[in-house]
Design goal:
Helix 1 links the parallel strand 1 and strand 2. The chain is globular. It is α/β, with parallel strands linked by helices. It is 52% helix and 14% strand. The chain has eleven helices and nine strands.
Length: 276
């Protein structure tokens, strides 16, 4: 017997969150939206989605609340503030954190949720707005396997693959490692294209060759699309990448982790090249 669609609340309608919300609506889930800026909700008029006056109000009509806001402070405020999600979420309701934040933030909020009779999973995503539109985001989840299974029908509306990695915080660790490697790749790709230019090769032609050879990578394509350098990428994503690389450094230092030193140095060099 199939389960009826979940009632979903969605908060964080940015370049990635907005197409995620649209796919949830298109899949037939009763969807409620909240945004700090009312203008953010205008593109959803006529979509069938409802709107709420606060995160708490949104939570009262939701089985699952998905958050796709910027950072730890935003997540904590939206979840635990006076008008936050936990002020309205029913017993057994679930919060899914799609933002990339410190694993400890998710563990702390999970404990707060449980005191209110609610549940929480961390489920950061990777791929950007285009992947969200196409339903091909990578969803990296951590938390109780049964809670993950409950959320999975919603996650699969915008994610493929959707992967459970372990206990709460595991999804965040995977996403931070993903962004660490991506940052290092960006720096290496820009260096290679710059080296080729110095050696007399046409940058665009070299980009075409590398993108079809064994050196191909998502990061190489992004650098090539940005003209071969990191300036445009730094303006668009530099601060977020710097946040995630430093999160990994904090985690590694706390547990005395020495593995991955070469990767971390490459990522820090790339951030330095971005002025971060």
């Amino acid at each position: 017997m199939s389960r009826p669609p979940l009632r979903v609340g969605f908060i964080g309608l940015g370049s990635q969150g907005a197409p995620m919300a649209r796919r949830i609506i298109a899949a037939g889930h009763e969807t409620t939206l909240w945004a700090r800026r009312p203008a953010t909700l205008l593109p959803f008029s006529g979509s069938g989605a409802k709107t709420a006056a606060s995160p708490a109000e949104l939570a009262t009509v939701s089985d699952l609340v998905c958050l796709c806001v910027v950072d730890d402070a935003d997540v904590e405020q939206v979840v635990t503030g006076p008008d936050g999600v936990l002020a309205g979420l029913r017993m057994g309701g679930v919060i899914a954190i799609h933002s990339t934040v410190h694993p400890d933030t998710c563990r702390r909020l999970e404990a707060s949720a449980r005191t209110c009779g609610a549940l929480l999973v961390d489920a950061p995503v990777s791929g950007g707005g285009r992947a969200a539109e196409q339903g091909s985001l990578v969803v990296m989840a951590g938390g109780d396997p049964q809670v993950f299974a409950y959320c999975r029908p919603v996650f699969t509306t915008y994610g493929d693959p959707v992967v459970h990695l372990g206990p709460t915080g595991s999804g965040q660790l995977a996403k931070i490692l993903n962004n660490l490697l991506f940052t290092a790749h960006l720096g290496l790709a820009a260096d290679v294209l710059g080296l080729g230019t110095t050696l007399g090769l046409d940058r665009a032609a070299l980009s075409r060759v590398l993108s079809r050879g064994s050196a191909a990578s998502f990061a190489l394509d992004r650098v090539a699309d940005a003209g071969g350098g990191l300036d445009r990428i730094a303006a668009q994503a530099g601060s977020l990448l710097a946040k995630d690389v430093r999160l990994l450094a904090e985690i590694a230092d706390r547990v005395g982790l020495r593995d991955g030193a070469v990767l971390r140095e490459a990522a820090l060099a790339a951030l330095a090249a971005m002025g971060r």
